[in-house]
Design goal:
Strand order of the largest sheet: 1-2
Radius of gyration: 21 Å
Structural class: mainly alpha
Number of strands: 2
Number of helices: 4
Helix content: 25-40%
Length: 155
């Protein structure tokens, strides 16, 4: 069996499609107006920040020093004590939501997860994955929760 033509898809075709679609991309959910030339050389490495950003671990091909710097940056913004700040940098909002909801479930195992009808799909997904009761709250016209629907007298 030849391994030279396993698929009708090609890298050149993918690059052409991405270039074409990027020309008219409006920036949601990601803004493409950035210059990545400085980080392109990093693509030749398999970077993996396994585990805690503050524990070096045994996989030395990582960027944990940069991760700690980012955590420190946000600690400054939120006026957190340096010794009281911890976290990690996720690859996207979905991963951040999943991790945050998991931590909530670990701290409050009998809690209910409330989310608006317009919340990110990953919130409902996390509730199912982690077996957390989920209650959807109606949304106002611009996506904000409908406060009367969130009230204790809700039917």
């Amino acid at each position: 069996m030849s391994t030279t033509n396993l698929s009708v898809l090609s890298i050149d075709g993918l690059l052409e499609r991405l270039e074409s679609r990027s020309k008219l991309h409006a920036g949601y959910p990601y803004n493409l107006a950035f210059d990545s030339h400085r980080i392109l050389p990093l693509l030749k490495y398999t970077l993996n920040n396994l585990g805690d950003a503050y524990v070096e671990g045994n996989y030395g091909i990582n960027t944990k020093d940069f991760e700690r710097e980012i955590i420190s940056f946000f600690a400054d913004i939120y006026h957190l004590e340096k010794d009281d700040a911890w976290g990690y940098v996720t690859s996207c909002g979905t991963e951040g939501n999943l991790y945050g909801i998991l931590m909530g479930r670990e701290l409050y195992p009998d809690a209910i997860l409330y989310g608006s009808a317009d919340c990110h799909y990953s919130v409902v997904k996390a509730a199912r994955m982690f077996r957390i009761p989920f209650v959807e709250i109606k949304s106002q016209i611009h996506g904000e929760i409908d406060y009367p629907d969130f009230s204790p007298t809700r039917k």
